[in-house]
Amino acid sequence: xxxxxxxxxxxxxxxxxxxxxxxxxxxxxxxxxxxxxxxxxxxxxxxxxxxxxxxxxxxxxxxxxxxxxxxxxxxxxxxxxxxxxxxxxxxxxxxxxxxxxxxxxxxxxxxxxxxxxxxxxxxxxxxxxxxxxxxxxxxxxxxxxxxxxxxxxxxxxxxxxxxxxxxxxxxxxxxxxxxxxxxxxxxxxxxxxxxxxxxxxxxxxxxxxxxxxxxxxxxxxxxxxxxxxxxxxxxxxxxxxxxx
Length: 244
Ligand SMILES: Nc1ncnc2c1ncn2[C@@H]1O[C@H](COP(=O)(O)OP(=O)(O)O)[C@@H](O)[C@H]1O
Ligand SMILES: [Mg+2]
Hints:
The protein has helices at 44-51, 75-79, 96-106, 111-124, 140-152, 170-187, 198-204, 222-227, 232-239, and strands at residues 4-15, 18-29, 33-37, 59-64, 67-68, 82-85, 158-162, 190-194, 207-212, 215-221. By secondary structure, it is of the alpha/beta class. It binds adenosine-5'-diphosphate (ADP) and magnesium ion.
């Protein structure tokens, strides 16, 4: 049986007098890689920030495991069970090791347990040689892998990825994609992936929701949405016809 990890209900997000999101209902199932696709400006990043509690909805509710989290009850505790990777990685001004150790330190881990956990995560992302390097001297691809290691090390239940490979070369993009796939399959993370890359959506996601001008136009299993979109706007986007 499916189990919802996150749900949006009657969501509205307004900036000034403009509604940038109006979503009646959107459900994220546990263990899935759920893709959010749509043209630039359709509200994808705003939606992720609302799910991640960085941004408050103007109206409507957000449920995490059935509990209403839009009321801000226990926000920090909920946020610690989530993780976000952005398009442009922001590195703390210290070593790669310390960047990855950070989330564990704030959770109270110290000593050999901390070191072993950090090293294991660096290894899975092919970063073990870079442990002592200053993080701000890394290449874009390396930095994005550190950003991923930094959040994976905390074992989040939900991983939010906002266009995580759009600034990367194909090699690093493939490494990130492989990692996302394996954490989803082997560690059971639920993933919400924002992308405007249809090929990446096809390779990675189980389910696709198509956003257009802040509205959920259609959604379904990825192969179905890509092969038989019902709405002309989705079809145009999937064909790559839309110029944005
Ligand atoms: N902080 C903000 N203040 C005002 N408008 C914003 C803000 N953030 C986003 N927007 C607007 O909301 C709309 C959706 O933006 P965004 O969620 O970034 O779209 P996407 O990620 O799909 O490109 C855009 O029109 C954008 O200009
Ligand atoms: Mg965006």
